[in-house]
Amino acid sequence: MDRLPAGGSPLWAMIYPADYGVGMSSLGYQSIISEMRKLGVGVERFFPGPLSGMSVETGRNILDFPLISASVAYEPDLLSLLSVFMSWGLAPGWKERSQAGQPVFGVGGALSYINPFIFYDIADYVVLGDGEPVVEHLVRECRRYMSHGDRKRLWEGLAEHGSIYVPPIHNCQILNEKPVHRKKSVLADLDLARGKSLWITPESVFGRTILVELQRGCPRACRYCTIPASFGPVRTRSVERVLEDVAAVKDLEDVQVGLVTPEAGDYPELSKVLRCIRSTKRAVSFASLRVDNIKEEMMQALVESGRYTITVAPEAGNDRLRGICGKKFSNEEIIEKMVLAKKTGIRQAKLYFMVGLPGETLQDVETIAGLCNDIRSRTALKLSASVGVFVPKPMSPWENENIAGHEEASEKIRKLKELFLGNSNRGLSIRIQEPKESMLEYRISWRGLGTDLPPASYRKAICTIKNKIYPEKDLLREQLGLLGFKATYCLRGDWQ
User: Fold this and answer.
1) What angle do CA 393, 236, 190 make, to 5 degrees?
2) CATH class (in words) of the domain with range 293-447
3) What is the pTM of this model?
4) Which residues pair with 312 in a beta bridge?
5) Which CATH architecture has domain 11-175?
């Protein structure tokens, strides 16, 4: 792709706490590396795996880098991050790293948008919101640190930016109930963002795909979703910039286009973009499709690209419960769109559902199987249903709801397995997330990894957390007196 400066100063390690294929499918990760390279930083990539602890670019050891950052997108990535820290010889906490003279470590990425206080004793700093408006200040202060070597001065300098949370400074203020005025960074003009992949690799989970950003933010208010409150107002890239990025693929061999946006159908110039992609004779894929926003031209573009699977998220098996979630489309509308998909040439549909939703009954759970059977009988599409347990997330309208207990979730999952039993031979399969995985996601999203533990206990926490069933949120508040929980609400007025 674009030529950017190699080498540079200071040396800066950029970790993605998942394997190379997953990390190279992250447009945000690539974009920040691009911004740092434009500023002359010697940034190099690190991933767990075969080259664990060694950079992709030069093979340097992670401990050669005085500055380390990580992009953390999902709750389980925190387990991976701390695991590689220990295996690479890095202390997990900012206090321990400071005392040992180890690298400065900072965090960005989707998880820091939702609850940055997960990292309150891990990171030296956390970037709040979009990274592009913050990176210049971050690089400037870190370059000053490389000259003076005073960690406390670095923390103070970073804290001067209103969109950087600095645990060594702000934690004390929070514990003493002093106001901490931080505001999430928002890149208002997306035309200033890079907006496309820096690298293209067949090892990516998307294959040889150039990722092109269309939009950030979402205008809807689905009650389980963190995007409207956490990721800023709706902003779109101009169609001119998007078309410029799409047109670039005509000179690249065997490359497809992946459109990155919370909801592809919301982009006002989508038709023009799809026509441009067709003109390059390249395949296209969408990050997400919403049932009530699917257009025939989108399905035609998939089929023309040799893609015969459509993915949608009904969330619930009936209109009542889906409406409570904030999705106002009906079962009949879902079936109509699946009929249209079949006529267009789609052969398979992947459907995403949740159990344990607020107000849900066992009969509601049974309707998931009923809806899948109706779609199958009326379309003959091959169906794959993926079912997870609802996890209430910080910054979502349902943040104060409780997660279903292990017994309740297990009962609902057993019922679904019974209803789907024997359907795999009829083109209907189901994949179910185990309750313990949802409990882990829930606990990390609110609590982190038990950060009241001394550093020596982190390994034990990582080994046991996967199998431990955690209490309801109210009990967590009472028993643990969570700094992360308290701080989330302490800053809520400034955070939104």
Assistant:
1) 95
2) alpha beta
3) 0.87
4) 351
5) 3-Layer(aba) Sandwich (3.40)
